[in-house]
Amino acid sequence: MMAINNKILREEPGEIEALLPWHAAGTLSARDSRRVEEALARDSALARQYAAIQEEYAETIALNESLGAPSARAMQKLFAAIDAEPARKASVSSNISARLAGFFASLSPRTLALSAVAAAVLVLLQAGVIGAMLATQQVGSYQTASFSTPRETAPANPLPRAFVRFAPDARISDIAAFLDANQATIIDSTAGGMFRLQFGDKPMSKQEAAVLIARLQNEKIINLAAPAQ
Amino acid sequence: MQVLYGRHHVRVFRFGLRLVRNEQVAEDLISEVFLDVWRQAGKFEGRSAVSTWLLAITRFKALSALRRRKDAELDDEAANAIEDTSDDPEVTAQKKDTSEALRKCLTKLSSDHREIVDLVYYHEKSVEEVAEIVGIPENTVKTRLFYARKKMAELLKAAGVERGWP
Q1: Given an 8 Å threshold on Cβ–Cβ distance, is A52 in contact with B165?
Q2: Domain range holding A148?
């Protein structure tokens, strides 16, 4: 048996052959999928192996699905541990920390219990992105979106703000790039996964704001965009 | 956190359970994983999917839990040698139930092979994502899965199940 094992283990898969499991799972790039499809069409041995892989794929899913789910004890233990965590510092000297603290505070179980599910997930992800982004910025150059300025108290034109719901498959890197490219700041989130964003700090006319909303609606990573105050 | 937990805890639990093979330990594991996520949310760099990040943490925690257990050596080779009280692959094959034989073989794979099979087939992770979770080069990911499949075929063959490959 050992000799057979050694013989098997010495064999190396071909380039396409090695990709077959990912083809079955649908996680290959379009280019690799095309290459695999072409190889399967002309190689019957490869096609037989692919049929075996599809069986393995189906049975692996069935096996994992049969494992059930954890009991409520795990969740209770987790949230008891979170509640026992030391309170995160709210009174911090720098705006960076203040902003981070704001995001983390919004992640507390009690707060989240009142907010929508999707909104909470996105806030968590945003915390990571913003934390990473701000870590590279100078503290003095930072200004919170909710910071009260004369422009905000009595603007001739309102500051450009919009309610935005990101697409479920939007990646953090895409959202970060979008925020950066549009000088956008997250002001708050609402139920249903909507975020109120502010775009820059200069007032916009109604016409300019309408153009902005139209542009947002065409963004791939945005499902919904609407004017906000 | 409730949302994140609600969305991912079942898959995290199943991945952990397949690694540690103990429901109690797997449940403790998911509490530890999500508590770590809670503490380190700011460190998430967004370069990968949240599920990939979670599975990588789960894997690390599972391996640590196994190391902590006195009977950690139960896993891998030793686990393969343990007699299963239910039907073995041979008996299953006699019942002409290839599906069940396959599932039984999936449970008899080594820890390294089990995790890679699960990550690719069940958790639908790409080559790059598996490499990130397991911490090995992408080419090793491909060859390790190939060997896992070879091992599975070998177990099936020993059980009298022929599938036309290899």
Answers
A1: yes
A2: 73-227
